[in-house]
């Protein structure tokens, strides 16, 4: 059975994914200028065109993959994996690589080249890791994969955007509750109009009407838009210029954990899609993910692209494969004409955020709904590292706005907030979350050997700095990657692993003894007969 290329739900899905991608593009423009010293013209001419092509190719690939799955299974409800720029890597590369290099050298070309190097190496590592993807999924409980993703959805998506919504209630609350009414209440609109589309139109109309009556709830961007066509170009010389330089390699403490973070995040998104009914093959999905980041680096973009969180939410909206194609085309077009600011001069961002909030709560709910009931404890436990990472972000943002920094304020915290614990738990939080979930699942199942193995992995990751290790510098919290990076955590997890192994041996010996007793009773019974 051939599936329709576009359905009405694709328009809803498109608006949600488009806004998500648009937010990343806004971050690139703002942070590249304020943190990394890259002028807006540099970003528009060199970075965004490369990002455009990688986003377009990725959306077309995952849309094709979904249609192939639909044709193979004879289903018409298959939803493509969402795809776009990786937010976590974007922030890490700007704040921890490009920003520090700019402050040290004031050389914007070197800053950009270091970003290209980081994106390229990250893509290579992710592509290599794709060959281990199936093995990781096979040996990781679903609760561990889904809960780590739910933590990101609950904090950085749901909580992050709910604050922005409630900061502009006059124009944002109506679209939010209209979205909840149509999506959660499954309300059908006249002429099968998509709920998200109507909600955004309603919010735009309300914002401009209030502005006409003198309310200051919406102020369009004052920046003037100048039309131009900026086609992507290849920059191999700039990309490879740092292969023989310490400027690139000395930041592997950031690049390697981010690549591992992205690989695991993609695995979690694939598991989430399978839980929602769409089982995609692991290896080709991850290979495409890594290779497209490599292509982005060749074309001038320092920012990896990735499979996005939110597949179940798009599926619940009724999106299928067309939403991905629309997103790739529109986002690419905006990048190529430098039109990111043009949209924001017309559409208040606040009226669109209800769609992203919906994604956050759907993803959080899925982690509890798609696992055995007793594994809900593991899901709850695995949410904690994401809460720590989110809390740290709030603390750092507050201090920066107050004219201070975490580096300056750290000695003043004392023992009241246990800031050291917050920072430690936030480092590599997605991986820590997965470990916490897996360990508690195996404890609940009394599989203490497997719990001990996962705890040993936590110990190894702590000793090498993949999780918990950090340097606190005037520029902020930075990864501390290397041997004996976080020894307290390494030894603590090691002792916990030893405990699990001892309990496993005792439990096995006890089970064997009970088995021998039962066997002896049977032999005695047979002898008496």
Task: Give a structural overview.
The structure is a single chain. With 529 residues, the chain is mainly α. It is 71% helix and 3% strand. It has 23 helices and four strands. The chain has helices at 9-34, 40-73, 87-105, 108-129, 133-139, 142-167, 169-183, 195-212, 236-240, 246-249, 252-275, 282-298, 311-317, 322-337, 340-344, 353-369, 376-382, 384-401, 406-409, 419-426, 429-444, 448-464, 487-528, and strands at 83-85, 305-307, 470-473, 476-479. Strands 1-2 form a two-stranded antiparallel ribbon. It has a two-stranded antiparallel ribbon with strand order 3-4. The longest helix is centred in the last third of the chain and has 42 residues, at 487-528. The radius of gyration is 25 Å and the shape is globular. Mean pLDDT is 86; it is low at 525-529.
Chart the SSEs and their pairings:
Layout: H1 9-34, H2 40-73, E1 83-85, H3 87-105, H4 108-129, H5 133-139, H6 142-167, H7 169-183, H8 195-212, H9 236-240, H10 246-249, H11 252-275, H12 282-298, E2 305-307, H13 311-317, H14 322-337, H15 340-344, H16 353-369, H17 376-382, H18 384-401, H19 406-409, H20 419-426, H21 429-444, H22 448-464, E3 470-473, E4 476-479, H23 487-528
Antiparallel strand pairs: 1-2, 3-4
Helix pairs in contact: 1-2, 1-3, 1-14, 2-12, 2-14, 3-4, 3-11, 4-11, 4-12, 6-11, 6-16, 6-17, 6-18, 6-21, 7-8, 7-16, 11-12, 17-21, 18-20, 18-21, 21-22, 22-23
């Amino acid at each position: 059975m051939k599936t329709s290329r576009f359905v009405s739900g694709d328009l809803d899905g498109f608006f949600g994914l488009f806004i998500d991608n648009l937010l990343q593009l806004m971050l690139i423009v703002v942070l590249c200028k304020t943190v990394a010293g890259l002028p807006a013209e540099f970003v528009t001419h060199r970075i965004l065109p490369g990002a455009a092509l990688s986003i377009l190719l990725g959306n077309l690939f995952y849309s094709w993959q979904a249609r192939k799955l639909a044709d193979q299974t004879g289903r018409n409800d298959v939803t493509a994996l969402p795809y776009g720029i990786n937010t976590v890597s974007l922030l890490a590369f700007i704040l921890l690589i490009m920003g520090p290099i700019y402050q040290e050298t004031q050389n914007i070309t070197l800053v950009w080249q270091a970003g290209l190097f980081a994106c390229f190496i990250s893509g290579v590592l992710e592509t290599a890791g794709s060959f281990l993807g199936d093995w990781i999924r096979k040996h990781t409980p679903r609760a561990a994969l889904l809960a780590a993703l739910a933590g990101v959805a609950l904090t950085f998506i749901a909580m992050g955007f709910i604050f922005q919504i409630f900061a502009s209630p006059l124009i944002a609350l109506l679209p939010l509750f209209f979205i909840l009414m149509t999506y959660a209440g499954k309300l059908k609109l006249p002429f099968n109009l998509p709920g998200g589309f109507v909600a955004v139109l309603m919010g735009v109309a309300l914002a401009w009407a209030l502005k006409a009556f003198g309310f200051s709830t919406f102020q369009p961007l004052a920046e003037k838009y100048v039309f131009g066509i900026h086609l992507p170009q290849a920059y191999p010389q700039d990309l490879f210029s740092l292969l023989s330089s310490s400027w690139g390699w000395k930041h592997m403490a950031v690049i390697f954990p981010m690549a591992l973070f992205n690989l695991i995040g993609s695995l979690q998104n694939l598991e989430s899609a399978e839980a929602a009914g769409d089982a995609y093959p692991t290896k080709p999905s991850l290979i495409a993910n890594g290779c497209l980041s490599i292509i982005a680096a060749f074309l001038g973009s320092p920012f990896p692209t990735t499979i996005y969180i939110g597949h179940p939410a798009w599926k619940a909206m009724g999106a299928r494969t067309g939403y991905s194609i629309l997103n790739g085309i529109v986002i690419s077009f905006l990048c190529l004409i430098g039109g990111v600011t043009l949209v924001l001069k017309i559409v208040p961002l606040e009226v669109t955020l209800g769609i992203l909030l919906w994604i956050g709560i759907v993803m959080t709910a899925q982690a509890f709904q798609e696992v055995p009931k007793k594994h809900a404890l593991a899901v709850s436990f695995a949410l904690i590292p994401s809460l720590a990472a989110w809390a740290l972000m709030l603390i750092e943002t507050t201090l920066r706005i107050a004219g201070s920094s975490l580096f300056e304020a750290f000695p003043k915290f004392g023992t009241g907030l246990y800031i050291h614990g917050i920072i430690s738990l936030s480092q590599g939080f997605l991986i820590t979350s997965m470990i916490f979930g897996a360990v508690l699942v195996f404890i609940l199942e009394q599989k203490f050997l497997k719990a001990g193995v996962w705890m040993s992995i936590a110990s190894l990751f702590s000793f090498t700095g993949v999780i918990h290790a950090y340097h606190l510098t005037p520029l902020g919290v930075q990864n501390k990657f290397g041997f004996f990076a976080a020894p307290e955590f390494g030894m603590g997890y090691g002792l916990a692993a030893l405990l699990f192994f001892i309990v496993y041996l005792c439990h096995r010996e006890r089970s064997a003894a009970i088995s021998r007793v039962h066997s002896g009773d049977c032999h005695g019974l047979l002898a008496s007969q």
